[in-house]
Amino acid sequence: MSDNTITIPISDELVNIYHKNLNLISGGSADLLNQHRDEAIQLFKQLGIPSQKNEKYKYSKIEPLFAHSYKKHFAPKRITFNIDDIFRCDIPEIDTHIALVLNGFYLPETGKLTTLPNGIVYGSLAEAAIKLPNLVKERYNALAENKSDGLVALNTAFAQDGAFIYIPRNVAESKPIQIINLLLSNENQLVQYRNLIVVEEGAQANVLICNHTLSPNRFLSNVVTEIFVGSNAQLELVKMQNEHNDSALLTHTYILQQRDSRLVTNTLSLHGGFIRNNLTVTLNGEGADAQLYGLYLTDRTQHTDNNTFIDHAVPNCTSNELYKGILDDQATGAFNGKIMVRRDAQKTQAYQANNSLLLTADAHMKTKPQLEIYADDVKCSHGATIGQLDNEALFYMRARGIGEREAKLLLMFGFVHEVIKQISIDTLRERIDDMVNKRLHGELARCHYCPMHCC
C-alpha cells in the first residue's frame, strides 16, 4: 500500500507512522533527501509538535491541527483531471514559467525538470537531487532549523518532493517563475513538501509561490523552503496564500543572503482557515539588503500568524520590514518580529513596523516587535499599531458625498495598498489589487474564473 489513514493527536503516532512506512517514504524520493531522515525523526521525537509554551508559537495553537484524521500518501496519487479545466485562475495567466505541485508531489505531466536556454532549471526537487546532485547536496537541509523546531524536523523526515529552482551565475530572467501548490483530494489529507531555490552570484529572478485548495476537504500542509541568494544577486519572492477555511498552512522559509545581494519578499495571506508563516533571513555578506513585506486579511474565525527573524550577521547591511493586516468578525492574528544585530554588525540599518486594523470588538491581534542589538554603531527602530479606521478621514470623505460603506472600503484599501504596491510585476500587482478589493467587499477570495467554491 502507498498510503495510510492516520489519526495524529500526539507526536508518537507520527513517529510510528514514519517507522512503519520508511521504505515507502525513501523509495518515493532521492538519496540526498533520504540521508537526513533518521536524524530528523529523532529530533522530532525530542521536540514534538510545538505548544504555546514555546515562545515562538505563543500565539498559535498548533497541536489541535494534528488531532484530526488525515490520509497520508507516500507516493503520488493518480488523479485524472485537466488542469486547464479545473484551475482557470487569473494568476497563472500571467506570463510565467509554471511549476505545478499537487498534494506535495511535482506533477509528472509538467515534466520533471525543465532547462531554459539561459541555463535556468526548475522542476521536481526529488528529480534535481538525482540528476543535479552538485547543486542540491550542499544546500538541501543546510538552513532548516531541525534542531530547534519540531515542525521543521517533521518535514525533513517526511518530505519526498517539492519544487526546485536554479538561476545560474549572472543570468537575469525577466519572466517570473511560478510555483503553484495545489491541494485536491476526496479525503482529508496531511501534506509535507520541500522547496529549494538557488540564485547564483550576479543573477536576477522573480519567484511567485501560490497556494490553493481545489476541493472542500480538510488539509494540513507543513512546508519548508530554503533559499540561497548569491553575491550581487537579486530576488523578488511573492507568496500568495488563498485557501479555504478548512485548510491549515504552516510555512517555514529560510533565506541566506551574500555580499551586495538584494531581497524583496511579499507574503500575501488573502484567505485561509489557519496560516502560520515563519520567515528567517540571514544577511551574511556586507552590503546585503532585505525588504520584507506582508499582508493578512482575516475574517470569521480565521487565524493568521507571521513570525519573522532578521539576522544581521555582518556589518553594513540594511533591512526594512512592513507587515499590515485587517481583521474582521472573530478573526485572530499575530505578528512576532525579531531583528538581531550581532556584535560585529556595525553600521547596520534596520527598521520594522506592524500595523493592524480591527473592524469589530471581537477581532484580536497580538503583536510583538523586537530588537536585539549587540553592536553600538547602528540605526534601528521598530513599532506597532493596532486600531480602527480613522473617524476624521471617514467624516471628511462622507462630507464629500461618499457613502459610509464605500468610504470604509476606500480607507481599508489604501491602508493595505502600501504593501501591495511593493510588487514589481505589474500584471501581478493589478491582479492582487483586484483580489484584495473583492475580499474587502465581502466576495469570495477565489480567483475570478476558478469554478471551485473553496472558501
Write the layout of secondary structure elements.
Blueprint: E1 3-7, H1 11-20, H2 22-27, H3 31-34, H4 37-47, E2 69-73, H5 83-86, E3 97-102, E4 105-106, E5 113-115, E6 121-124, H6 125-131, H7 133-136, H8 150-158, E7 162-167, E8 177-183, E9 189-199, E10 204-213, E11 219-229, E12 234-242, E13 247-257, E14 262-271, E15 274-283, E16 289-298, E17 303-312, E18 318-327, E19 332-341, E20 349-358, E21 364-373, E22 379-387, H9 391-398, H10 404-420, H11 426-440
Helix pairs in contact: 4-8, 9-10, 10-11
Task: Tell me about this structure.
This protein has eleven helices and 22 strands. With 455 residues, the protein is of the alpha/beta class. It has one domain. It has a ten-stranded mixed beta sheet, covered by helices on one side. A ten-stranded mixed beta sheet has the order 5-6-7-9-11-13-15-17-19-21. Strands 1-2 form a two-stranded antiparallel sheet. Strand 5 and strand 6 form a beta hairpin.
Q: Structural class of the helices, strands and pairings?
A: alpha/beta
Strand content: 35-45%
Summarize model confidence as the mean pLDDT. 90
Radius of gyration: 21 Å
Number of strands: 22
- Using the alpha-carbon principal axes, give the shape: globular
* Number of domain units: 1
Distance between the termini: 33 Å
Strand order of the largest sheet: 4-3-8-10-12-14-16-18-20-22
Low-confidence stretches are 444-455
Q: Sketch the major β-sheet.
A: 10 strands, mixed
- What oligomeric assembly is this protein in? single chain
Helix content percent band:
10-25%
Counted by DSSP, the helix tally is 11
